[in-house]
Amino acid sequence: MNWSPQAHTLSKSTPRSRESLSLNKLFGIWGFVVMLSGLLFVSIPSKAAESDPVQTESSESETSDSEKTPLEIYVERQQKLPIIIENLQFPDLKESPTEKDINKREALAHFLTARLLFNRNAHQQALSELQKAADLDPTSSEVYELLIPLAIGMNQSELVEKYVSKAEDADPENYELLVRVGRYMQRQNRMDEAIRLIRRATESSRIDHKSGEYVLFRFELGLLLTLTKDLEKAAEAYEVVFDAMIHPEEYELNSQIKARLMADRAQSLERIGRAFLDGDRLDLAEQAFEAASEFGTGKPAILGFNLASVYVKKGDYEKGLNNLQAYFDARLQTKGRDAYELLEQLLEKLDRSDDLIPSLEKLADNDPRNSKLKYFLAEQYIENDKLDEAEKLIKSTLESRGDPEGLISLAEIYFQRRQAEPLLDTMATAFKSQQNINALQDLMNRIEEDPELTKALMEVGESRLEENLGFEGALLMGKLAEKAKRSDLVSKFYTYALAERGDQAFRLYQSWGEYLMQQEEYEQAVEVWAAAGSESRLNSYRPIFLSREADAQVELENFEKAIAAVKKARSIRDTNEFHFQEAWIQYRASNDEEAIKLFEDVRTKKDINPRLQRSIHLILSNLYVQKGDITNGEKVLEDFIKFDPENPTVNNDLGYLYADQGKNLEQAEKMIRKAVDSDPDNAAFLDSLGWVLYKLGKPEEAITHLEKAIKILEEGDPTIYNHLGDCHYALGNKEEARKVWETALEKEKAAEAPNEKLVKELEEKLSSEKEATS
């Protein structure tokens, strides 16, 4: 079992959470496409930049901004803005100021302090002062104008999200701030929020709809909507942009914006035409394509292709075919296979599908150097079961043009013929070319569904281990063996691949090790992780391998070896995650005192990610409660809930602790209801709600929630049955209470590790009830 922050409840259950949490592996098995497309090239991610995707902000730095970080650019710009004391407005002093007046004064003081700290480059302290100012005076738009950009520059995404809605409430018309945050959300891949904010900016009453800013914001909005496939709204967003490009004299465009808007105008107009086409604004699409031709080279061939795309949607198929022919006559290849797919679509609409192959053959004769055309023709041969013609055409094209795009089609021929040897060779060559990786993935998926072909391919691969399998063939067969769960062959193929390409050792070891972990073959996994860790060329990754070796040792219940491995990882690179892992292993090993010490240490560390922080506090609280230290169990959760007051699990767990002691019951009910509202079918949350209602003297209402919890769990939970029995007893249903308690006792005794305390409690209840009735 992985030591993932979300995994702990599956190994040593917490009394209250009992969440149905899946194990998220720290270093999960990568998908086949990712493995193939990234295997030959290891990329290093760059730091996120503040620049927006369409460069719509004013160009204040002409030369060196592109080489600076977002924070450096922002700091330099802000430092140019001096504090003008004469312009500061202090609230009037009142003899008896209200709390609101006092808060505004304090907020202003924090704001001024922030500006001074900011100009001294004390950015973290400035950010802290701005947060205090915003919390004291949520209506101050000036605070947000500094706080949010600074948080963006420092990549403090949680703060951006926390304050953006408050900034909107304070000044909903501040379009510049809305756009800035929208761009940030885009970089965070929060596309829906980015679109909402930038659209809101374009709707601001302060922005002039004839201004260059407005035009560029609409262009940016169109790009985002296109990315999210909201094609109708994207087309609507582009209408203003199109009008400004055709009639720039009607807009107030400064020289910089005009230059950006008109740069490569023909290409931009063609893209806008495509957006209009996709959004079913067909007349506008036609106009945009014609304008693109006018402002571009004026080639009728490209215009012919574009207009054919319009006419096929308009239903004017003959006109579309005539325009497309102009593109074919020019023997252009710029539109790739799209042109031939359009031909196929037009002929189908004209009920002339039988003409497709003859038409393609004629085009291929007139354009013998067009490999994309020939490969498309070969695909039609394959679809019509003309495999010999397809094979001949693809091979001749590969020999004459060297374009590897046709390799997947050739592999498809061998797949259909179930010819294992040439299929393996062709797939390996295709993989090496890094062409059509997605198509190769699809082909592999189909092979996996054919056990006989899979077996034949692996036999061919195994027979070549001593000869010429090659790195690409070994890797493909390794992935195929994984799917077939042939661990013996997985080991052989990965061992061969490692010998062939040592530079890919990290990815190979990782994929191999994760496969074994997934198959619960932990002894062999330990060997693989240990071998990876012993590779001198992988020294920088050694802590990762040691961490995974520790995970495998935990599953084998070799806790001492697991602890030794993670300690070694920490000695090389002492991260919060490895610190947590050591605590988690001690927890799994039932070394509770050592686990508590480690969890207490790690929870005081800085920069712990929220999910890890949550897991630390939940486990630590549970450890204290298990040893009978309810006070510290509560305190741990009370500390955490200050930072995450909406967290359902923490609200549930802390609310239950309060209820179990009969204190803060109204507060406990509110907290637990917050948890239930977030997940109405969570049995643990429903049990907590039933229990707090029982403690509040509402056993009848409690029964409804407890019975629902039992139904959800199907097999039931002894604790919930115990609570249900208490409710029936409180209502005077003593016979029903006895039956339910008996069920609870039976289930608890049958558990793998019965809770002796609960067993004793149930036995005493049943004994007392028996004495009372005798």
UniProtKB/TrEMBL annotation:
Keywords from the named record: Membrane, Repeat, TPR repeat, Transmembrane, Transmembrane helix
SMART domains to which the protein is assigned, alphabetical: TPR (SM00028)
Domain of life: Bacteria
Residue ranges crossing the lipid bilayer per the database entry: 26-44
Pfam families: TPR_16, TPR_2
UniProt cross-references to PROSITE patterns, sorted A to Z: TPR
TPR repeat segments: 107-140, 683-716
InterPro entries the record matches: TPR-like_helical_dom_sf (IPR011990), TPR_2 (IPR013105), TPR_rpt (IPR019734)
Coiled coil: none
PANTHER family: CELL DIVISION CYCLE 16,23,27 (PTHR12558), CELL DIVISION CYCLE PROTEIN 27 HOMOLOG (PTHR12558:SF13)
The protein's name: Tetratricopeptide repeat protein
Organism: Polystyrenella longa
